[in-house]
Design brief:
The protein is 42% helix and 27% strand. The chain is an alpha+beta fold. It has a single domain, classed as Alpha-Beta Plaits (2-Layer Sandwich), CATH 3.30.70.930. Strand 2 and strand 3 form a beta hairpin.
């Protein structure tokens, strides 16, 4: 299971706001037929699933600004692909919180 962070930035829109593009990209993600989980953050989107599925969804997300008339798109992807044991967004967050709790009780 991979956990992937994707940031898609339309370039040269003539406006400093990109929320119109983010909303359309999130619509593509929310309607994805692939079995992926996702979480939007203020700076990027985190997607969890089988790597091939996640990359297929990101490919479609990358196309959204082009479909809206943008002529240049910059997409950054960070992949955490752990294969020694299952890893999920929730498990990673829980692990950090457990360690914080342990530190508080020392």
């Amino acid at each position: 299971m991979a956990i992937v962070q994707a940031t898609i930035i339309p370039v040269g829109t003539g406006d400093t706001s990109v929320s119109e593009y983010v909303a359309a990209i999130q619509d593509v993600l929310s309607s994805a037929p692939e079995p992926v989980k996702h979480q939007m953050t203020p700076m990027s989107t985190i997607i969890e699933g089988e790597l091939d599925d996640v990359l297929a969804v990101i490919r479609r997300m990358h196309e959204v600004p082009f479909q809206k008339g943008v002529r240049r798109v910059s997409t950054s992807i960070t992949i955490d692909d752990r294969r020694d044991k299952p890893s999920t967004m929730e498990q990673k967050m829980r692990s950090v919180e457990d360690k914080r709790q342990m530190d508080r009780h020392r």
